[in-house]
Amino acid sequence: MTFKLKTLGLAGILWATLGLAMAQEAVIRKNLVERLPNLPPIDEVSKTPMNGLFEVRLNGTDIYYTDAEGNFLLMGNLIDTRARRNLTEERVEKLTAVSFDALPLKDAFVIVRGNGQRKMAVFEDPNCGYCKRFERDLQKVNNVTVYMFLYPILGPSSTERSRNIWCSKDKGQAWLDWMVRDQLPTAASCDTAALSRNVEFGKKHKITGTPTLIFADGSRVPGAVPAQTVEKYLAEAR
């Protein structure tokens, strides 16, 4: 009997806690919608590790913070100073994670080095200086298959150079000639619908900069990281 009463008491506490959380979420949603009529639809409201602070998620991956009554709305990074973790960044990375199996690999060309056993995907713009630096350092990484997604987001010249590379007889060679050896790709034309699909895919998954790397385990790494970092992620993705 005592055990049963304790169990019922625990269940009551859990239900009360759940009810309070639902009530707080309802208040936040109601006040924000009424006070900010131009605010996009709220996807989710959830508690954060900081007392009294709630996460408000919009547009799939946009993160804001508010108090329990929706009186204030903040945008910025929530840092756990004890653990030295950027909680906002970790949350966005989780929300924007892309399964490697979900990548439209038909819209990429492939560069194989060594035995090609390891694999990674890269979104790059041919006019991106950071991408050139990354590609030159990437030459140090062996035994890898790279799925290269042309991602022309830096203007008309990016689109033109991406087209010339995509329409080359040897896409990988044309890409490396330009990115590593500064040899302009020869003018060419063909069906470039894949490039448009790459841009749409990137917008959908919040790929806002180049290079962006995606590894076999779904890890996503933005920026021109050095070869040692690429090796680390490739090893962890096995």
Question: What is the topological layout?
Answer:
Blueprint (H helix, E strand, L loop, with lengths): L1 H34 L6 E6 L6 E5 L3 E5 L6 E2 L4 E2 L4 E2 H9 L13 E5 L4 E7 L4 H10 L5 E7 L5 H11 L4 H9 L13 H12 L7 E4 L4 E3 L4 H10 L2
Parallel strand pairs: 8-9
Antiparallel strand pairs: 1-2, 2-3, 3-4, 5-6, 7-9, 8-10, 10-11
Short description:
The protein has 7 helices and 11 strands. It is α+β, with helices and mostly antiparallel strands and 238 residues long.
Radius of gyration, Cα only, in angstroms? 23 Å
Output the helix-strand order.
Answer: HEEEEEEHEEHEHHHEEH
Task: Order the strands across the largest sheet as they lie in space.
Answer: 7-9-8-10-11
Low-confidence segments, given as residue ranges, are: none
CATH topology of the largest domain: Glutaredoxin
- The secondary-structure class comes to alpha+beta
CATH class of the largest domain: Alpha Beta
> How many strand elements?
11
| Outline type | elongated
Quaternary state reads single chain
**Helical residue percent band:** 25-40%
Give a short account of the largest sheet. Answer: 5 strands, mixed
How many helical stretches?
7
How widely separated are the two ends? 52 Å
Under the CATH scheme, which architecture of the largest domain would be assigned? 3-Layer(aba) Sandwich
In round numbers, the mean pLDDT is 92
**In CATH, what is the homologous superfamily of the largest domain?**
Glutaredoxin
Proportion of residues in extended strands: 15-25%
Kindly give the count of domains.
2
